[in-house]
Amino acid sequence: MIELPDNNFLVPDATALVEAVVFVVVLVVVSKFVLPRLNTLMAQRRHQIDDALRAAAVAETEAQARRDDAAVALRSARRQARLIIDRAYAHSDYLVAEGRRKGRDEYEWSTRKLGATAAPCPEQLPPPSSPSGPTITPDRQPNVSEATVG
């Protein structure tokens, strides 16, 4: 008969069989007790993440709606402010014109009252159509109806 050497690595010995049995036992224990618990925890976590993503999507939609509302309100406020400023400029122009008219009327009344006794010197009195002294006119902004607000 042919004798085989004792340390042949191709022939499994009892240690390899015991290791294989222990591996299968550990594999069964892990698959029966550990994996179901891990799968349950992963499913709960996945559910929490999905809920958080849905809530984030809803919050983003609401935030965008609020941003749009704020933009509309801001455009409206800018239009109203522009109208108020334009009205103030128009009222200022009216008051200046009215003051000039009253000044001319008072000048004419005083010159009629004085009559021919005191003839004004042309160098001293400006003509009624030109303003006396420097005038300050504010820079005008374009009208709201002409400008696009955006």
List keywords for this structure.
single chain, 150 residues, mainly alpha, 1 helix, rod-shaped, disordered C terminus
Care to describe what's here?
- The chain has 150 residues and is mainly alpha-helical.
- Helices cover 67% and strands 0% of the residues.
- The protein has one helix and no strands.
- The chain has one helix spanning 14-114.
- Residues 146-150 have low confidence and may be disordered.
Task: Please outline what is shown here.
By secondary structure, the chain is an all-alpha fold. Helix content is 67%, strand content 0%. It has one helix at residues 14-114.
DSSP strand content = under 5%
Quickly count the helices. Answer: 1
The assembly state of the depicted protein chains is single chain
| Secondary-structure class | mainly alpha
Encode the helix/strand succession as letters.
H
Low-confidence stretches: 146-150
Give the C-alpha Rg.
Answer: 49 Å
Largest sheet: none
Mean pLDDT: 82
Count of DSSP strands: 0
Per the principal axes of the C-alpha atoms, what is the gross shape? rod-shaped
Q: Helicity, in percent?
A: 55-70%
Give the end-to-end Cα distance, rounded to a whole number of Å: 102 Å
